[in-house]
Design goal:
InterPro entries: DIOX_N, IPNS-like_FE2OG_OXY, IPNS-like_sf, Oxoglu/Fe-dep_dioxygenase_dom, Plant_2OG-oxidoreductases
Keywords: Iron, Metal-binding, Oxidoreductase, Vitamin C
Structural class: alpha+beta
Number of strands: 16
Strand order of the largest sheet: 2-3-14-11-16-8-7-4
Protein name: Fe2OG dioxygenase domain-containing protein
Order of helices and strands: HEEHEHHEEEEHHEEEEEEEHEEH
Number of helices: 8
Shape: globular
Radius of gyration: 20 Å
GO molecular function, one term: L-ascorbic acid binding
Helix content: 25-40%
Family: Belongs to the iron/ascorbate-dependent oxidoreductase family.
C-alpha cells in the first residue's frame, strides 16, 4: 500500500520529540509533499451540514451526536441556522472588500511583523524555496470584548468599527454554543472548554483574482492547521477552501447561509487525538476575488491543554502531557511548523 499524505509528511519531518532537537527554522514537510491529483467537490455529499436549531429543542442529544461524528470523521462541518443575521454577514463581507480596496498606503498603516500585535496586516509574499507566490492578504485583530479593542481597528472605511463589531459579537455567541456542544460530544461537562477561553481573534482574508498564466505558481494559503480550539469560517460565494479528507483534497464550496467550523490543534490535544486538527488550504482563481472571515477560538495563556482526564484510561492512554497555551504559542513560533506536528513537542513519554 502506498504511504498516505500524512505518512509522507511524517517521513520528511525532523524529530520533534525533544525541544533540544528543534531547529529555529526548517522547511514545512507538507510543502514538499507532491500535490494530490484530483479534487472532489464537497457541496452536497462530503460536507456534513448541521442545523443549529437542534441545540434548542428536544433533539439536542442528536445534534450533539452529529457534532461529535463530524469532528471525529471529518474534522469539519457546516452549520445552518447559526443565528448570525444575514444583514450582519453581508455588512461584514462588504466592509472587508471595502478595506482591501483602499489605497495601499492606507492599508499598510496596519502592517506589522509582530504576531502578538493587537492588529496587523499580513500581505502576500514570495516563497523562494518553492518558487510560488502566496497571495492572501489578511487583517488580523483581537475582538473580544469588542469595546476593549475596537479603538485599535481601522477608522476607514467609516463603517468598519460598527459593522465588524456587530458581526464579531454575533459570531462569538455561535462559538460558545458550538464549544458547549463539542464538550458534551466528548462526554465532558458542557462548560469544560468554555472555562479555558480567553478571547476571540478574527482574520479578514482577501484573495485577489489571479492572472490565468500565473495560476500554477500562485497559492491562496498553503497547507496548514490552525493553532486554535476551533475556527469558524464565513465565506463569500467564491469557492476556494480545500480540506484533506480520507487522504484526498476536497473542495468545501460555500453553502448559502452557513458557516464552516473546523477542528484546531488545541482541540486535538484536549480530545486526546479523538478529534484531529484539520489540514486545509485556499486556492485562487483568475475570474473573481474572494473574501473570507475566520474567527479563531483560543485558550488563555495559563490554561492547561492536556487531554481531559475523563478521556484517559488503560485503553486510551494520554497522547499528550499537560502544557499551557503560552508554552505552545512560544514553541509554535520557534519551531515554525504550520501543522499539528507542532504538538509533538508535548507528547507524553511512553512507559
Amino acid at each position: 500500500m502506498s504511504p498516505t499524505l500524512l505518512q509522507q509528511a511524517d517521513a520528511l519531518h525532523p524529530a520533534l520529540s525533544d525541544p533540544k532537537n528543534v531547529q529555529s527554522t526548517y522547511t514545512d514537510p507538507l510543502s514538499e509533499v507532491q500535490a494530490l491529483s484530483g479534487v472532489d467537490a464537497a457541496f452536497d455529499g462530503s460536507t456534513p451540514v448541521i442545523d443549529m436549531d437542534g441545540l434548542l429543542g428536544p433533539q439536542r442529544s442528536e445534534f450533539i451526536k452529529q457534532i461529535g461524528h463530524a469532528c471525529e470523521k471529518n474534522g469539519f462541518f457546516a452549520v445552518r441556522n447559526h443565528g448570525i443575521p444575514e444583514m450582519k454577514i453581508s455588512n461584514m463581507l462588504d466592509t472587508a472588500r471595502d478595506f482591501f480596496h483602499l489605497p495601499e498606503e492606507e492599508r499598510l498603516k496596519f502592517r506589522s511583523s509582530d504576531p502578538d500585535s493587537l492588529i496587523r496586516l499580513v500581505t502576500g509574499f514570495q516563497d523562494k524555496t518553492r518558487n510560488i507566490f502566496v497571495s492572501r492578504q489578511s487583517l488580523k485583530f483581537h475582538c473580544h470584548p469588542v469595546e476593549d479593542f475596537k479603538s485599535h481597528w481601522p477608522s476607514t472605511p467609516p463603517s468598519f468599527r460598527e459593522k465588524v463589531g456587530e458581526y464579531c459579537a454575533s459570531v462569538r455567541k455561535v462559538e460558545v454554543a458550538i464549544l458547549e456542544a463539542i464538550s458534551e460530544s466528548l462526554g465532558l461537562e458542557r462548560d469544560y472548554i468554555d472555562k479555558l477561553l480567553k478571547g476571540h481573534y478574527v482574520s479578514i482574508n482577501y484573495y485577489p483574482a489571479c492572472q490565468e498564466s500565473e495560476l500554477d505558481v500562485t497559492h491562496g494559503v498553503r497547507t496548514h492547521t490552525d493553532p486554535t480550539i476551533i475556527t469558524i469560517l464565513m465565506q463569500d460565494d467564491v469557492p476556494g477552501l480545500q480540506v484533506i479528507n480520507d487522504d484526498k483534497w476536497i473542495d468545501v464550496n460555500p453553502i448559502p447561509d452557513a458557516v464552516v467550523v473546523h477542528v484546531g490543534d488545541m482541540l486535538q490535544a484536549l480530545s486526546n487525538c479523538r478529534y484531529k486538527s484539520l489540514l486545509h488550504q485556499a486556492i485562487v482563481n483568475c475570474e473573481r476575488e474572494r473574501v473570507s472571515i475566520a474567527s479563531y477560538c483560543y485558550p488563555s495563556d495559563d490554561s492547561a491543554i492536556g487531554p481531559a482526564k475523563k478521556l484517559i484510561d488503560d485503553d486510551h492512554p494520554a497522547i499528550y502531557k499537560d502544557f499551557t497555551y503560552k508554552e505552545f504559542h512560544e514553541s509554535m513560533w520557534r519551531v515554525k511548523c504550520s501543522t499539528a506536528k507542532r504538538l509533538d513537542l508535548f507528547k507524553a513519554e511512553s512507559d
